[in-house]
Design goal:
mainly alpha; 2 strands; about 60% helix
């Protein structure tokens, strides 16, 4: 019994001889040596590589690198300048031509025939001389300009115009609080169900044709150049 204990104790001492606090000192020493060797080798390789690169970059190589860099920079600058010049030289796309020349023409030929409402001077109000009201003229002018813009959108343009523009302004104009309330009882400002909106022409020259003015300005600009 005593011999067994003594033998076991001796073996344990031998197994613990190469360890300290459970760390294998031999393996640790080997790892440290390997790491040191790798660092030394890497440092030496880097030094040799740097020296080789320095020796390879001769004056002739430097000159060729400088020429290539100069050529690349010049090409980049040229491309940028060409792009700017092309942008400046490109003519601006002309604005789409108006379908109607004025709000009066639009009102006379399109709106009054399309937006038919029974104006009886009691439930809905209107004035054939709509152009006498500054508010009405401004609202109808806005409706016309929006119509000219949105008609070009073949998909949803007119739907947007009806919903966001016409359905907003026209009920206000025709309400008992609108600009036509005080004159709507006159017979000339009323109509029958299904008839176009009452209309009276404005004074001549009150609404000039914008298309003709634009053409005149274009000719003057061309003559100046």
């Amino acid at each position: 019994m005593t011999a067994t204990i003594t033998g076991t104790t001796a073996e344990s001492r031998e197994s613990l001889a190469g360890k300290a606090f459970g760390i294998d000192i031999g393996s640790l020493a080997t790892s440290l040596v390997d790491a040191g060797v790798r660092r030394a080798v890497e440092s030496e390789v880097a030094a040799v590589s740097n020296q080789a690169v320095k020796e390879a970059i001769t004056d002739d190589v430097r000159e060729r690198l400088r020429e290539r860099a100069t050529a690349a920079a010049g090409a980049a600058i040229t491309d940028q300048l060409d792009g700017q010049l092309n942008t400046e030289d490109d003519p601006e796309e002309p604005a789409p031509e108006l379908y109607y020349g004025s709000v009066d023409e639009w009102m006379r030929e399109w709106l009054r025939w399309t937006y038919r409402r029974h104006c009886d001077g009691r439930n809905r109000y209107w004035s054939a001389e709509w152009w006498r009201s500054g508010e009405a003229t401004s609202r109808l002018e806005s409706l016309w300009r929006a119509w000219e813009e949105l008609r070009l959108d073949e998909a949803t343009g007119m739907s947007v115009w009806w919903r966001d523009h016409c359905d907003h302004h026209m009920p206000i104009l025709m309400s008992d609080q609108g600009p036509f309330a005080r004159v709507a009882t006159k017979p000339e400002n009323q109509n029958e169900k299904g008839d176009p909106l009452p209309y009276a022409p404005p004074p001549k020259g009150m609404f000039p044709d914008v298309r003709e003015l634009n053409d005149q300005n274009t000719v003057e600009d061309h003559d100046e150049h």
